[in-house]
Amino acid sequence: MSRNAESxxxxxxxxxxxxxxxxxxxxxxxxxxDQRESLKLIASENYASPATxxxxxxxxxxxxxxxxxxxxxxAGCQNVDxxxxxxxxxxxxxxxxxxxxxxxxxxxDANLVAFWAVLADRVESxxxxxxxxxxxxxxxxxxxxxxxxxxxxxxxxGMSLDAGGHLTHGFRPNISGKMFDQRSYGTDPATGLIDYxxxxxxxxxxxxxxxxxxxxxxxxxxxxxxxxxxxDSVGATFMVDMAHFAGLVAGKVFTGDFDPVxxxxxxxxxxxxxxxxxxxxxxxxxxxxxxxxxxxxxxxxGGPLPHVMAAKAVALAEARRPDFADYAQRIxxxxxxxxxxxxxxxxxxxxxxxxxxxxxxxxxxYGLTGRQAEQALLDSGIVTxxxxxxxxxxxxxxxxxIRIGTPALTTRGLGATEMDATAxxxxxxxxxxxxxxxxxxxxxxxxxxxxxxxAESVGKQAADLLTPFPLYPAVDLG
Length: 478
Ligand code: DSN
Known about the structure:
Strand content: 5-15%
Mean pLDDT: 96
CATH superfamily of the largest domain: Type I PLP-dependent aspartate aminotransferase-like (Major domain)
Bound molecules: D-serine
Number of helices: 20
Helix content: 40-55%
CATH topology of the largest domain: Aspartate Aminotransferase, domain 2
C-alpha cells in the first residue's frame, strides 16, 4: 500500500465515523495522537501495521460463522472460510504446527479452548463420550451429574502469578483457579529463575493432568524440552501459553529447546503482543487434539470474529517475511540494552537482566511501590504497568515492580542508543519520586511526590527521543 493510500484510508474512515458520532472519531484521533507522543513500554502492547488495522474495519464484522471452515452452523460463510483458512495456513507455516485454530477472541479464550480440549481428550468420562457422539438426548440426569463430577477438580500445575505466570494459569481469582484443583511453581528466591528440579518435584507430588508453562512477567527463556520431560514423567499434558513471546518464536529468536511448538502438546497465544497482529488469540496443536480444539466454538467461544481473523491472516503473512526475524532479534537486543542501562544506573532487576522482550524492575530499591512508580512515570510521558515481583510484599494491586517491554518501541525503530536514553529517563523519575502520605498523614502505597518540573522535563526528553521515529508516518489525519 502506498503511503498516500494509508493516509486516505484512515482519513476517509474517520470522516465517515464523524458523520454519525463525532466524539468517537475524535477519540480515535486522540488515541493516535497520545500513542504518538508517549514512550510506550507496556510489554504486552505493540503497533499493528496499517494493513492489519484496515483489514478489521469492514463487513466481515457483520457475519456469523460458528463452526469451522467448511462446517458452519450458518449459511453464506464462503468468504469467512477463505480468511480463516488463510490465517490458519499462515500460522501453521510460521510456527511449524500441524494444526492452528484462529478463532479465539483473546488469550483467555484461547486458554479456555485449550483447557477444554485437554479435559475432553484426557478425562475418562463415558457421559462426555456419549454427549460428543451426539447422543445428548440419551443422557440421563445421572449421566450429567457424572459428567460434571468427572470433568471437575482436575489438576493443573502452572507458574504462580507473582513469579511471572498469567492469571489463567491457575490464579485463584480466575476461573482456571476455581475449575481446576490447582498448584503453582515459583522461581528460586535467590536467582529469580525457574528451578526445574523444583518443578519436577512439584509435578511428582501433585501429578497434574496439565502442566502449564508460559509467562507474562518472567524476563528469561524457558527450556520447554525440560518442561516436556517433566510433563511426560508424570503423564501430564504439556501446555505452553506463548502469548508474550510468540513474536520471538515466529522470528526464530527462540529456537531449539526454547521454541515451545515442537515440545508442547498444545500451545496458546495472543496475536497482538510481540507477534504484532490484531487483538485476538490462537491455539496450535498436533493431530491428537485438533478435533477437540476445533470444538472451541460453540463449546467455549461465541461466534468467531471474521474481521479479526482477516487481520490475523494479514499479520501472520507479515510475520512470515524475512524482515520479521530482524524485528524479533531487535526486540531482544533493545530489552537487553534497556536492562544494561538500568543496571548501570543502580536499578534492581528481577533475575538481574533479561533474555526476552521484557524487564522487571523491583522499584522497592527506589523506596516506591509499583503503583507510585507507574503513576510517576506516566506523569513523565512514560507508559508502563505495575507488576508483582516474586514474593511481593505489596500484593497484586500496589505491587513492588514495574514491567517494561520493547516490542512497541522496536516497531517504531528505536535502537540501543535510545534504550540507554530511556533507561536514564526512567531512573531519573524513579530516583526523584518519593512516597506520599494519606489524608491522616500515614504512609500511602498510592500517593507520591514528584516535582512537576522533573516530570515536565522528562516528558519533553521522551518526546524528543521519539521525534526521529514517527508512529504511522504515512498517516496524516489533518
Ligand atoms: N494483560 C496481558 C499482559 O499485559 O501481560 C496478559 O494477558
